[in-house]
Amino acid sequence: TKVLTLVAELCDLCLLLENIYSQLDEESSESSNHSAAINSERPWPRPKVFICYSNRDCSKHTSVIQSFAYFLQDFCGCEVVLDLWEHLEMCREGQMSWLSRQLDEANLIITVCSKGLRYHVEKKSRRGKTPVGRRGNGGISPIGESHGDLFVVAVAMIAEKLRLAKQSKDGGDQELRRLMAVYFDYSTENDIPTVLNLAPR
């Protein structure tokens, strides 16, 4: 029944989107040209959203992440940063530098929690290994060199930002609002790693 409900909701969403597209098609070209001219003169500020997720759950989870990213980009007007779309930039800049820059620049950091994310993040904690190592070359650890474990490093860095925000004298409310933990309906609140307990949900 849950699957049928989800399918029904998706059908309703498709009908809604179809109506939106037909209304957009009915706009006159004069009106479209006018709004395009306004937008080019004063572009709408697009919030930058970084999505952190586990790429070790399954291919369906990765598909959901991509759909979520497209939704944020196409319907919410966000500038979405997703590792799947940034291979060239990551190779050019180096994974750790790229990740640090994205976490600093993003207006909103969304960590999509799942069983795989919690398992791999907490497995590293149980072993007592720090994701960001103390080796040379800017502190890149073996994990930093593996694209598959980049999300473990990202979660550790996000957790540190949460800790610092909580300890800041002004309460760090603005920083806390920037760091969000979410999960889809096939996951539960228990899939949020302990290190992200301070994050808004």
Structure description:
The chain is of the alpha/beta class and 201 residues long. Helix content is 58%, strand content 8%. It is built from ten helices and four strands, in the order H-H-E-H-E-H-H-E-H-H-H-H-H-E. The protein has helices at 2-26, 29-41, 59-74, 87-93, 95-105, 115-127, 136-139, 142-145, 150-167, 173-178, and strands spanning 48-52, 79-81, 108-112, 179-182. A four-stranded parallel sheet has the order 2-1-3-4, sandwiched between helices. Helix 3 links the parallel strand 1 (48-52) and strand 2 (79-81). The model is unreliable at 27-42 and 130-146 (pLDDT under 50).
- The strands making up the biggest β-sheet line up spatially as 2-1-3-4
Question: In angstroms, what is the radius of gyration?
Answer: 20 Å
Reading the helices and strands in chain order gives HHEHEHHEHHHHHE
Helical content stands at: 55-70%
Tally the beta strands. Answer: 4
How far the N terminus sits from the C terminus, by CA atoms, comes to 27 Å
Low-confidence stretches: 27-42, 130-146
* Helix/strand class: alpha/beta
Tally of helical runs: 10
Shape: globular
Average of pLDDT: 77
Per DSSP, what share of the residues sits in E-state strands of 2 or more residues?
A: 5-15%
The largest pleated sheet is described as: 4 strands, parallel
